[in-house]
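Memo to structure team: turn this sequence into C-alpha cells by end of day. - J.P.
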Amino acid sequence: MRILHLAKYYWPRSGGMERVVQGLAEGATALGHQVEVVAIEGRGRTPSAGRQRSSVTRAFSFAALGSQEIAPGYIAAAWKRADIIHVHHPHPLADLACLLRAGRTPVVVTQHADSRRSIYRPVTGLVLRRAAAVVVPSRAHLALSTELVGWESKVEVIPFGIDESRWQTVPPPPPGAAPRAIFIGRLVAYKGLDILLRALERVPELRLDVVGSGPEGPRLRTLAQALAITDRVRWYGEYPDEDLPRRMADADFLVLPSVTVEEMFGLVVLEAMAAGRPVITTALPSAVREVNVPGVTGLEVPLRDVQALAEALETLSQDAARRRTLGDAGRRRVTEHFTQTAMAERHIELYQRIRAARG
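Reply from structure team:
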C-alpha cells in the first residue's frame, strides 16, 4: 500500500506531532508498506537522513506568518501517487493541498489539536467532510474538540505509540546521586513550568533538568533566580531528539505540570514510562489521564497546586523503592498499550477497511 502523510514538520524537528508522524511512517514501512511524507523545512535547518526509513519530501519555507509557514512548494510536493492520503491537523497548507488534488484517493485525518485560528476552520471543515475517517488518540480528545462536532460518526480512537526500544536501554540513574527530576517540552505558558519551579523551591534536596526552549525561557530563568534555586536547575535548551534518552538516564522521574488542555496527550510521558521512570502529571481532563495511572505508573496532582506538586516531588525524591515499582509498571503499560507497532498496525487495518469499502 502507498501511504502519503501530509505533515507540518518532520524529524529531526522534535515535537509531539512530529514524533507521531515519524512513528506512523516508520511503523508502516517496517510492516512492508511504501510511505512518503511531505513536510516543511524552514531556513537554517539541514536535516540528516540518518533515521529516515521512509521517503521524505521537504518544501522550503520562505517565512512564517504567525503559525503558518509560507511554503508554496508544499502544494506541488503533495501531488504524489498514493492509495491513502493521511492529513495531520492542524495544518491549513496540508488541507489546501489535499483539496486541490484530483481523483478519489481516500483521506484519513489525525486530529492532533484544533486550529487556534477560526479563519482556517472553513478549509479544515471541507477536509473533514471529505475524510473517510478521523483518528484521535483518546475519547477525551474527541470530547474536547470543537472542530469534530458533527463528525463523531467518522472518528476512530487509536492511541499514540512510541518506539519503546529506544527507551528500554536507558540505564537506571547513577547510584548515590542527589534525586533529580526532569522536564522535557516547549517552554510555553500552558506547560506550567513556573508552577514546577515554585514547587521545587520547597523541596531543597531535589535537582531539576529542563530540556526545551520557547518564549517563556527568559521569564522562567528570572523566576529561578528570584526563588534562589539556580544552583539546582540545569537548562539544556532545545536538545537533539537522538540524545533525549541520554538526558533521561540522569533523571529519577519526569514531571509534566501542564495547566491547560492544550496538553492533549503528553507523548513525553510515554517515553519516560518506557525508560522505567515514574511520572508526575496534573489532573487535566485530557488523554494525559489515560496514559499515567495515578498510584500505578506515577502520581497525579491538582492543576496549579504548588503545595500538592511539592509534596509529590518530595514523595518520589525520598522513596527509591516506590520509584522502581512505579517505573516498572509504567514500562509494562507502554509495552501493552502504547507501542509504535500497535499504532501502525491499527492504522493499516483502518486503511484497508476504507479501501475495501471503496471497492
